[in-house]
Design goal:
The N terminus is likely disordered. Helices cover 41% and strands 14% of the residues. The protein is an alpha/beta fold. The longest helix has 21 residues. It has a domain of 214 residues: Alpha-Beta Complex (Amidase signature (AS) enzymes). Strands 1-3-2-4-6-5-10-11-9-7-8 form an 11-stranded mixed beta sheet, with helices on both faces. α9 packs across α15. The protein has 15 helices and 11 strands. The chain starts with 10 loop residues before the first helix and ends with a helix.
């Protein structure tokens, strides 16, 4: 079933309008509420909503919110972030009705920055692969991706201007690509994960969704207090490595064409684009990711495996059965490979600012029982590098395709600037 296109809510535009006294935080909540009323029954992006509470806060605290960095913008939180005033169920029947005593650190950062929390968005169980109810707003018969399924869909359906996700393999970038929105996975540890349900502690990374690249940069800057905004000046032309990795053949013809289209658009706009080869050590690291993720997951979810196993979905149980077979020697070896690979990647990036590569193997697959493959994301998550999904392309059926900009570790603003340059280059070529 095809779904009608939606008008995305630009966080940056709304914030500017609040600053200019053209709109109030309460009126923005009303915009979100109208979109939710129109689309939520079909899309199923939320697991909990408190529109009345958000409206009350936006009205009664309007002056403080309007002066704060996020200007009172509504935010959807992936339901692995603890919240003291809303249930946090981690997408699992094992935590039905669970009410944390406090907020996760990123939630407190958002509230302090002037966010109004609208509700909790659907996540796959424990951010793995056991899917929930969410559908892709562009076509309700297709997956929105995962694990941050509800957050990507909520932004794509115009329900919120900002939503949070998390990435352990590809759970921020891939859903954004499938749903046709921008997403930013910062460098590892740029944002704290305290109070976020842990999957794998050396991989888990907070991410943000928005309508466009400038929106996610603005939201991350406001939340973190870092100089990450890219909307105040034209981005400079980046030096781009066109990376046809060892899994390039796994990308669909449409996705391969999308990456080629992006590369040509970048060159026309003045960027330097050169082919680059993935060193064999990074191929080893790509394979090591799963070992590290599973070994840590076995320990992160040890309590659930020992005491709540019957309440877990079959995909989660199967994952934990496999995870418990990963020994410490294999894990330590994988970590050593990852450490060497990060050094090799730093050497490779010496002559480039960013890498251009697919965000996903193709458009969102048909059906909502699977999240799609993370094969084009997991290496960069393991490397801890900043990644941005750049929307604006589509396949022959009109479904969104995203290309991925991968930056150097710790050079998050440069990655966002290159992603904005790419987004603008694609828009000029359309």
């Amino acid at each position: 079933m095809l779904s009608r296109p939606d008008r995305l809510l630009s966080a940056l535009d709304l914030a500017r309008r609040v600053e200019a006294n053209e709109i109030t935080p309460e009126a923005i909540v009303d915009l979100c509420a109208a979109a939710i009323a129109a689309r939520e029954d079909d899309v199923g992006a939320f697991t909990y909503l408190d529109i009345a509470g958000a409206r009350k806060l936006a009205r009664e605290d309007a002056r403080r919110l309007a002066a704060a960095p996020l200007r009172g913008l509504p935010v959807g939180l992936k339901d692995i972030y603890d919240t003291y005033d809303m249930p946090t169920e981690y997408g699992s029947a094992a935590y039905k009705g669970h009410q944390p005593a406090g907020d996760a650190a990123p939630v407190t950062m958002l509230r302090r920055a002037g966010a109004v929390i609208l509700g909790k968005t659907v996540t796959t169980e424990f951010a793995h692969q056991q899917t929930g109810k969410t559908r892709n707003p562009h076509n309700l018969e297709h997956t929105p991706g995962g694990s941050s399924s509800g957050s990507a869909a909520a932004v794509a359906a115009g329900m919120v201007p900002i939503a949070t996700g998390s990435q352990t393999a590809g759970s921020v970038i891939r859903p954004a690509a499938f749903c046709g929105v921008a997403a930013f996975k910062p460098s590892y540890k740029l944002l704290p994960t305290i109070g976020m349900k842990c999957y794998a502690w050396s991989l888990d990374t907070v991410g943000l969704y928005g309508a466009g690249v400038a929106d996610v940069a603005f939201a991350t800057a406001a939340m973190s207090g870092r100089d990450l905004r890219v909307d105040r000046a034209s981005p400079s032309a980046p030096r781009v490595a066109l990376m046809h990795t060892h899994i390039w053949a796994e990308a669909s013809a449409d996705m391969q064409n999308a990456v080629t289209t992006a590369a040509r658009a970048l060159e026309r706009a003045g960027a330097s684009v050169k082919d680059a080869t993935l060193p064999p050590l990074l191929e080893d690291a790509w394979r090591a990711h799963k070992t590290i993720m599973l070994h840590e997951a076995a320990r992160s979810y040890a309590f659930e495996y020992d005491h709540k196993r019957d309440l877990l979905g079959p995909k989660t149980r199967d994952m934990l059965e496999e995870a418990n077979k990963i020994g410490v020697d294999a894990y330590d070896d994988a970590r050593r490979i990852a450490k060497r690979a990060r050094l090799a990647l730093a050497d490779l990036m010496g002559e480039f600012d960013v890498i251009l590569t697919p965000s996903a193997p193709g458009a969102a697959p048909h059906g909502i029982s699977a999240t799609g493959l993370a094969i084009f994301n997991l290496l960069w998550t393991l490397m801890g590098t900043p990644c941005v999904n750049v929307p604006g392309l589509s396949d022959s059926a009109g479904m969104p395709l995203g290309v991925q900009i991968v930056g150097r570790f710790g050079r998050d603003r440069a990655a966002l600037e290159a992603a904005l340059f790419t987004e603008q280059a694609l828009a000029q070529g359309s």
